[in-house]
């Protein structure tokens, strides 16, 4: 546990050792506000909720989370520091979890800094804060799923740009899997069970359920399972590369 926390602290400090982290957070907050107030018609709706804010999170995360995750392992391989990291008294599992937790906490910090929107909606009306809290939980879990995919793609390639593109592609596929236009393709030749399975892979459908304030354990377990599966794949990829 101490080794895992050490890696987490190391990565967390690395985020703030350069201005990149601050620029990232500022851009994220500006984009979230712009989408909420302009594209989401926050004031025109006349409702005291944060639905316009959370509706755009999957699309914001599609580009922001891969940007956080692309350097988790690609940068270590580019700089040649991965060999030094793997010689430390820790396991690959601890290293992967430590890096992932640091990235997830950083994403959580960026999400937490959107609290002025929550204050604004409480000032303007009487929103259901239970729904808002459930939406924040769902958003953070979804961010973790994006980062887990990104961690795996970063381990797969030593080029950060390639890792970014692969992460965006995989996450985009997982997002669209629940859309009718995708499901219609499978309904033409596959069984209903296969179609339901494809639909169940969608990030958006599980997140939207949580954003409505319905904290279904199945939606929470879905994101946890996605994180576990992709981090396990990341560990296996690094194990193979270490053996070489």
Task: Provide a descriptive summary of the structure in words.
The chain has 244 residues and is an all-alpha fold. The chain contains 14 helices and no strands. The protein has one domain (2-16, 55-112, 126-243). It is 80% helix and 0% strand. Helix 4 (57-69) packs antiparallel against helix 10, helix 5 packs parallel to helix 9 and helix 7 crosses helix 14. The longest helix is centred in the middle third of the chain and has 28 residues, at 129-156. The model has no long low-confidence stretch (mean pLDDT 86).
In short:
The protein is mostly helical and 244 residues long. Helix content is 80%, strand content 0%.
Distance between the termini: 27 Å
Strand segment count: 0
- Approximate helicity band: over 70%
The helix tally amounts to 14
Percent strand equals: under 5%
Succession of helices and strands = HHHHHHHHHHHHHH
Largest sheet data: none
The unreliable regions are: none
Question: What class would the helix/strand composition place it in?
Answer: mainly alpha
**Alpha-carbon Rg, integer:** 19 Å
Note the overall shape. Answer: globular
Number of separate structural domains? 1
What is the arithmetic mean of pLDDT? 86
List the helices and strands and how they pair.
Layout: H1 2-15, H2 20-39, H3 51-55, H4 57-69, H5 71-79, H6 82-87, H7 92-112, H8 115-124, H9 129-156, H10 160-176, H11 180-187, H12 192-199, H13 203-211, H14 217-243
Helix pairs in contact: 1-7, 4-9, 4-10, 5-9, 7-9, 7-14, 9-10, 9-13, 9-14, 13-14
């Amino acid at each position: 546990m101490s080794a895992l926390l050490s890696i987490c602290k190391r990565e967390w400090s690395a985020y703030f050792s350069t201005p990149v982290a601050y620029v990232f957070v500022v851009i994220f907050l500006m984009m979230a506000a712009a989408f909420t107030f302009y594209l989401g018609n926050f004031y025109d709706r006349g409702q005291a909720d944060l639905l316009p804010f959370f509706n755009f999170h999957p699309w914001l995360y599609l580009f922001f989370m891969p940007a956080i995750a692309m350097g988790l392992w690609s940068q270590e391989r580019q700089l040649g520091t991965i060999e030094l990291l793997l010689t430390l008294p820790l396991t690959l599992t601890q290293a992967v979890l430590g890096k992932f937790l640091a990235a997830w906490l950083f994403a959580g910090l960026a999400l937490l800094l959107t609290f002025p929107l929550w204050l604004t909606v409480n000032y303007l009306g009487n929103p259901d804060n239970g729904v808002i809290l459930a939406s924040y939980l769902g958003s953070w879990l979804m961010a973790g799923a994006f980062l887990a995919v990104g961690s795996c793609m970063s381990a797969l390639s030593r080029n950060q740009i390639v890792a970014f593109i692969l992460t965006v592609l995989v996450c985009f596929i997982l997002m669209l899997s629940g859309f009718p236009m995708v499901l219609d393709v499978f309904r033409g030749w596959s069984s209903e069970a296969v179609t339901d399975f494809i639909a169940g892979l969608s990030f958006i459908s599980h997140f939207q359920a949580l954003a409505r304030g319905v904290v279904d354990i199945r939606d929470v377990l879905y994101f946890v399972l996605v994180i576990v599966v992709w981090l396990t794949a990341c560990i296996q990829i690094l194990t193979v590369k270490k053996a070489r």
